[in-house]
Amino acid sequence: MRQLVPEALPTVDLDDRYGGPRPRVEGRPWVGICMIASLDGSTVVDGRSGGLSNPDDVAVLGALRRAADVVLVGAGTIRAEGYGPPKHLGVRIGVVTATGDVDVAGPLFTSGAGFVVMPEDGPRLPDGPGGPVEVLRAGTGRVDVAGALAGLGRIVDDPAFVQVEGGPRLNASFIDAGLVDELNLTVSPRLVGGGGPRLTVGAESTLLGFELAHLLVDERSFLYTRWITAAG
Does 81 reside within a domain? Predict the structure, then answer.
């Protein structure tokens, strides 16, 4: 993998490109969305993102997870992608759900890495094999993502970087709330066709500006872009 922007480099260290401290924003953690999309904008093939990905993309995801204190993922994405325990010890994965439809007996939770984010009026979850599952509640009827961010300190000590990994409705919730500071988007050199989901589904119409922080390319023509929300 090599870097094209901001300067041409023949090789890159992914932990250097994606790691490092992120500033807190108005007292809250820095929030980044990480996604992959085809050339025509689809984020899945046959319901999963894996058909768009490759080993370098997986390596980028690993570098971002090593940098993150918390990963937030919608329950539907957890089920579709088959999330298990994170490879990087210490990172916590929050499963965001309005209904409580979560497999608390699955390996994500039995590993101790998983917790649930759900509304205040959501159902009580059953205990997992190891006892009660940690639950962070915010909002009524649906998860209030701003409230969830504010409450993450009850799960992780002083979280500085939160990575959001979809699905598109969870991405939309953070965009609508004005809580996206960074977008790490892999562009897969494939056309998918069909009516697959985009990066967001259900977001309000908006025009949110970003500045390109870096552009990487691998030998398979995958592009790895990192965007930071533009000031002003």
Answer: yes
Per-residue pLDDT tens digits of the chain, which is 232 residues long:
999 999 999 999 999 999 988 999 989 999 999 999 999 999 999 989 999 999 999 999 999 999 999 999 999 999 999 999 998 888 999 999 999 999 999 999 999 999 999 999 999 999 999 899 999 999 999 999 999 999 999 999 999 999 999 999 999 999 999 999 999 999 999 999 988 899 999 888 888 999 999 999 999 999 999 999 987 5
Residues 6+ apart with CB under 8 A from 137: 117, 118, 119, 120, 122, 151
Residue 12 within a domain: no
**pTM for the structure as a whole:** 0.96
Number of domains in the chain: 1
What is the C-alpha separation between 199 and 41, in angstroms, rounded? 8
